[in-house]
Specification:
alpha/beta, GMP Synthetase, Chain A, domain 3, 2 domains, four-stranded mixed beta sheet, 5 helices, 23% helix
Length: 181
């Protein structure tokens, strides 16, 4: 999947490091405290002749913010005077929360969203009965408000599809948890 080539004001070709820095200023539209870089969705930035190509992997293929993210990336590039660019979408390999930067994890925590745990990529089998049994027990997810580990799942479905709703048993506050993918 790719977006068509766009035109912008003329300028000299920037370095790839400059482009990465520009993209670090592009916020995720659903969680504006985290950039597309810290979210880990930018997979590649390269020049193909005089055309700048940015490759992104959405957090999931049905992400409702995909169009907005693509447009925001294009606007950031065009604002710097790049004449020709393309934003491509790459679905494989699928995005994983392991691609979040440490800075991004801290930004989520500071925003009141518990960052996801690192996934165990070697784990092949998901035991649904064990997950459901743990639902009534403490979750081990740390509360971003008071830092207590005594939290529980309220709903596997939070304010966006990539988050679950939790409640802290210590301070009583509800909070989003960015699901591990």
């Amino acid at each position: 999947m790719s977006e068509s080539v766009k035109s912008a004001a003329p300028d000299a070709s920037p370095t790839l490091d400059e482009v990465w820095a520009w993209l670090d200023d592009v916020p995720d539209p659903e969680i504006p405290v985290i950039s597309v870089i810290d979210l880990g969705i930018i997979r590649d930035v390269r020049w193909e002749g005089d055309e700048l190509v940015v490759v992104m992997t959405p957090t999931y293929s049905g992400c409702p913010a995909l169009h907005v993210i693509r447009e925001s990336i294009g606007e950031a590039i065009a604002a710097k005077g790049v004449k020709r660019y393309r934003v491509d979408t790459q679905l494989s390999p699928a995005w994983t929360t392991d691609w979040l930067t440490e800075r991004g994890r801290e930004q989520l925590r500071g925003y009141g969203i518990a960052p996801p745990a690192r996934s165990d990529r070697n784990e092949q089998v998901i035991d649904i009965s064990a997950i459901l049994a743990r639902k009534s027990q403490t979750s081990g997810v740390t509360c971003p408000q008071c830092n207590a580990g005594d939290t529980r799942v309220v709903s596997q479905f939070g304010s966006t599809p990539c988050k679950a709703l939790y409640r802290c048993n210590h301070c009583g506050e509800p909070f989003d948890y960015f699901k591990t993918h």
